[in-house]
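Help needed: design a sequence for this.
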């Protein structure tokens, strides 16, 4: 313990799944954490909505308060674990303005209002830490911000939403339909009563924005992150993917596009079964990073859960506290590169197109003609008859995988295919990454 260094005051906003665990560990491990920091952490209060609520973790009653405003201005470190935009945003700004360091797990708030919050921190030399905001327990923010600060990150492929990974994994491994897998996820507590934020890709979109900002030293507007959720993914597509040696994952993709800037997007993606991301099962998360000098790196683990997420929050608290002891201002966010967002049409990718076509001669030639007119080459073409497919008489299912081409070229092919009289329906289009 550093001689005579005063205790550091810690205010915690929220005592739910993550907050209660953080408070419990701050109290139970005070001495050990103090030894690691060089100063003891003194929890001065825990803000909640309802002080009378029955709580699983025993938090001393005298610490609970509904007066979060008074709490944040008396602390050295404020830990925001309430979630939502307001009052979290106002409280964080007030804490930063009063010189406190802030730790938050609130990706929704950071993705929508990050620049304003980081500016407020920068003005007073305070630090805003958010390791738990992306991929729960997995250390990914600090590796991107610090460990890879001397390298150039070219690409990130992330499974950053446990609910959707759980659902897609169940469809792939047990042949469940989307509805049945969602119901299982809800029953087991992996999906919220309203799963829109997860299955619609909004949660992954927010995390993609935070990862891209760090990786590319560029402020990312959430509206510039293209988003597709998993709601349109069918069991037929999952089975076709399996037959072709792929698995469907909802990926957050952040990549530099030569000569065009950066692309940040979230969509269901075919990943080859021998890619490390294909081995991420259940509700786990993983972030695959490709850096110029370091090469490929994979960060894997629990993306949510009280104790798991609290681990990342505690790490941030220890870092913030150590900085107090050593002194000096916090490290500002770096957005100096200010790279442009690439036009989505120029992003190179490859498509896996599934078509319901008339089972008659000449069909293949017409389809091949569409791809060749757009200068897109076809890598593989298969006739597919998944077990569960409702085989309509006179129709066959064709699955076409293209080589890489610009998104706009591929989209034009799909539009033209849909217009062919021999094509009954474009049953699905999924992009392929990681080949
Ligand atoms: P939670 O279980 O819903 O808990 C929220 C807590 O905040 C509750 O204690 C609630 O008080 C308190 N609260 C909410 N609004 C408040 C207000 N206006 N004034 C005072 N207190 C208020 O949330 P959580 O799951 O712990 O998540 C917290 C944050 O961590 C969120 O930003 C979330 O996105 C992030 N996160 C969570 C996980 C996870 O696994 N849960 C993983 C990664 C990140 P009451 O107890 O009185 O209702």
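Sure. Designed sequence:
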């Amino acid at each position: 313990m550093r001689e005579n260094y005063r205790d550091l005051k810690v205010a915690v906003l929220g005592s739910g799944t993550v907050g209660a665990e953080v408070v419990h560990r701050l109290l139970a491990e005070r001495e050990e954490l103090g030894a690691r920091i060089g100063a003891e952490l003194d929890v001065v209060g825990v803000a909640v909505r309802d002080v009378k609520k029955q709580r699983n973790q025993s938090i001393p009653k005298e610490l609970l308060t509904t007066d979060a405003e008074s709490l944040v201005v008396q602390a050295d470190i404020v830990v925001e674990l309430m979630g939502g935009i307001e009052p979290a945003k106002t409280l964080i700004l007030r804490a930063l303005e009063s010189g406190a360091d802030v730790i938050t797990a609130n990706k929704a708030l950071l993705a929508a209002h990050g620049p304003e919050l980081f500016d407020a921190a920068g003005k007073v030399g305070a630090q805003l830490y958010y390791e738990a905001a992306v991929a729960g327990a997995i250390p990914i923010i600090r590796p991107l911000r610090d460990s890879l600060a001397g390298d150039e990150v070219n690409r990130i492929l992330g499974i950053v939403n446990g609910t959707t990974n759980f659902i897609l994994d169940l469809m792939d491994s047990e042949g469940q339909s989307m509805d049945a897998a969602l119901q299982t996820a809800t029953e087991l507590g992996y999906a919220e009563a309203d799963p829109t934020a997860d299955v619609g890709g909004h949660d992954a979109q927010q995390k993609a924005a935070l990862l891209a900002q760090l990786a590319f030293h560029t402020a990312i507007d959430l509206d510039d992150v293209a988003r597709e959720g998993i709601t349109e993914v069918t069991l037929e597509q999952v089975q076709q993917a399996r037959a072709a040696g792929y698995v469907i994952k909802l990926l957050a993709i952040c990549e530099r596009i030569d000569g065009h800037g950066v692309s940040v997007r979230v969509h269901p993606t075919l990943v080859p079964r021998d890619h490390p991301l294909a081995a991420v099962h259940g509700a786990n998360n993983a972030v695959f990073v490709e850096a110029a000098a370091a090469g490929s790196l994979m960060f894997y683990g629990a993306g949510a859960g009280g104790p798991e997420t609290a681990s990342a929050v505690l790490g941030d608290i220890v870092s913030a506290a150590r900085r107090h002891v050593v002194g000096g201002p916090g490290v500002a966010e770096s957005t100096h590169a200010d790279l442009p967002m690439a036009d989505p049409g120029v992003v190179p990718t490859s498509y896996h197109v599934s078509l319901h076509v008339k089972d008659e001669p000449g069909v293949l030639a017409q389809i091949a003609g569409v791809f060749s007119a757009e200068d897109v080459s076809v890598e593989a073409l298969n006739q597919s008859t998944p077990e569960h497919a409702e085989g309509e008489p006179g129709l066959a299912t064709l699955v076409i995988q293209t080589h890489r081409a610009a998104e706009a070229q591929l989209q034009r092919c799909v539009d033209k295919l849909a217009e062919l009289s021999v094509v009954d329906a474009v049953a699905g289009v999924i992009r392929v990454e990681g080949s």
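The mean pLDDT is 94.
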